[in-house]
Structure formats: structure tokens, C-alpha cells
Specification:
By secondary structure, the chain is of the alpha/beta class. Helices cover 37% and strands 13% of the residues. An eight-stranded mixed β-sheet has the order 3-2-1-4-5-6-7-8, sandwiched between helices. Strand 2, helix 2 (47-59) and strand 3 form a beta-alpha-beta unit. Helix 3 runs parallel beside helix 4.
């Protein structure tokens, strides 16, 4: 897949929120969305990281008036709620939510302030909470809103540890990361309830040279390739199938457990418990 999509104005007048947009695939996604005419809300962990990313986007050709920085540390679910509140009160309609933020947890099990394993919270729970709290502005986008969850092929190797989602008893950061991606893929359809006018999909952006590459232990493609794979699903001319998992622009098989209704219901219940507890 080409790392550069043909510039267009197909997203002119539309607003996108990209999480984890200070570097890597998220930054490239923000750059390409701006190139297609969108107003981009650039999320970063800190304001300093966000401002640095914004300056780099402008240097890469984006117009400064297309961009706005929003800071939130996803290891604190309260920050996620504040971020959602800031978006909901300043943007009348949100056309695109790209849940890209992801971390590779430390070698030892590390819990967030909310008591959740860090990668499970940052990579999945924050995305699920954002989708829920931003439902009103997404619904206000006149049936054209899209949620694009940036997942990973590693979700196919994962299993949900229902009795110990933090994996405290037998921890592996690769297994924890894979579990977070399985949860993200499994929950995608539920992020856009029937009748909401929102289409939600997940995507494997491919193996790219980002901070997460050590989890895969291989050579990765440029992050721009991953950004192009994500942005392709954001363009109105690209028709999406709600709840589908995309790989290379095509619908691809997911892990079998991601399609099991019982597992989906179980995950929805667990998610509600964990985000409500925070």
C-alpha cells in the first residue's frame, strides 16, 4: 500500500479526533486527515507533546487553523472523561474518532491509578469510554460519523483472561498487549449501537516502525504506511461494513472469540464495571 494518499478535499468541513497523535501512526494519520481537508483534534499525553506534534504537522504542510491540541493521560480514566467533555462542549459534531493511542507495558505487571493493567486501560478501556462519552457529537454528524479502532494482527494470538484481566498471576507484556487488542476488536461493534448513525470498524495498520515494534521483533514499514491504512477507512468514498476488521484495505478474519456473542456480552459487562469503578 502506498504511504501517500492522493490529496483531496473529501474531508473538508469534517472534524476528526485522533488519539495518540503525537508520534508514529497517530501523527501520520493526523497529517493525512489534514491533507484531506479535515479539522483535526490532535490528542497527546501532555500539552508539551501535543504542541510539538502540532508544530511538526505545520512543518509537514498542515494549516495551523486546521489543528487543535488536546492533552489527556489515558492511564487516568478521569483524564479521558475530561477530554471527552472538552470535545463535546466545543465541537457541535464529530465526524471521525480514531482510537489509535496504545502503549507497550513494562516487563512487570503495572497497574494504572484506576487499578487496571496499563496496556488494557490505555489501549482499550480509554477507547471504549471515549466512544461512549462522545456518542452525542458523533450522532450529531448526520449519519456520516465513523469510529476507526487501530488494532493489531496480534489480537488473533490472544485470549481474554476473564478471571484475571490484569494478568497479575501470570504476566507477559506481549500477552497483555494482545489481550488489549482483542478486546478493542471485539468491542468495536458495540461502540456504535444500532440507530446511532455511527459506523465503527477496526483495522490492522500493518507492521510499522513505531515504539511498539519491539513487541513484534521484526523490521517494520514506515509509520506513514500505517497512517495511510487508517485514513483510507476515514474517507467518505470508502464504504465500510459496520463491525468489520480490515487489513490492507480489505475485510479480514478476526480471532474467533471476537465474533462470539457470549464473549462480546461478557466484555461489555467487564468494561462497564472497570470504567464505572474509576
Amino acid at each position: 500500500m502506498s504511504a501517500v494518499l492522493n490529496p483531496s478535499s473529501s474531508l473538508s468541513g469534517r472534524t476528526a479526533l485522533v488519539t495518540g497523535a503525537s508520534s508514529g501512526i497517530g501523527w501520520q494519520t493526523a497529517r493525512l486527515l489534514a491533507q484531506h481537508g479535515a479539522t483535526v483534534l490532535v490528542h497527546a499525553r501532555t500539552a508539551e507533546e501535543g504542541e510539538r506534534a502540532l508544530d511538526q504537522l505545520v512543518e509537514a504542510g498542515a494549516s495551523r487553523d486546521q489543528l487543535r491540541v488536546l492533552a489527556a493521560d489515558f492511564t487516568r480514566l478521569a483524564d479521558v472523561a475530561v477530554l471527552a467533555g472538552a470535545v463535546a462542549t466545543t465541537v457541535p459534531a464529530l465526524d471521525l474518532l480514531v482510537n489509535n493511542a496504545a502503549v507497550m507495558a513494562p516487563e512487570r505487571c503495572t497497574l494504572s491509578e484506576d487499578g487496571n493493567e496499563v496496556s488494557f486501560q490505555v489501549n482499550f478501556l480509554a477507547a471504549a469510554l471515549l466512544a461512549k462519552l462522545l456518542r452525542a457529537p458523533l450522532t450529531a454528524a448526520d449519519g456520516r460519523a465513523r469510529i476507526v479502532n487501530v488494532s493489531s494482527s496480534l489480537h488473533r494470538t490472544a485470549s481474554m483472561n476473564w478471571n484475571d484481566p490484569n494478568r497479575t498471576r501470570k504476566y507477559s507484556r506481549v500477552a497483555a498487549y494482545a489481550q488489549s487488542q482483542l478486546a478493542l476488536t471485539m468491542a468495536t461493534g458495540d461502540m456504535a449501537p444500532e440507530g446511532s448513525g455511527i459506523t465503527a470498524v477496526s483495522v490492522n495498520p500493518g507492521l510499522c516502525d513505531t515504539a511498539l515494534l519491539p513487541l513484534y521483533g521484526r523490521v517494520g514499514a514506515p509509520a506513514a504506511d500505517g497512517g495511510a491504512a487508517v485514513v483510507r477507512l476515514c474517507l467518505p468514498e470508502f464504504r465500510l461494513t459496520h463491525g468489520a476488521y480490515y487489513d490492507g484495505g480489505d475485510i479480514a478474519p478476526t480471532a474467533q472469540s471476537a465474533q462470539e456473542e457470549r464473549s462480546q456480552r461478557r466484555l461489555a459487562k467487564l468494561t462497564e464495571q472497570l470504567v464505572t469503578r474509576a
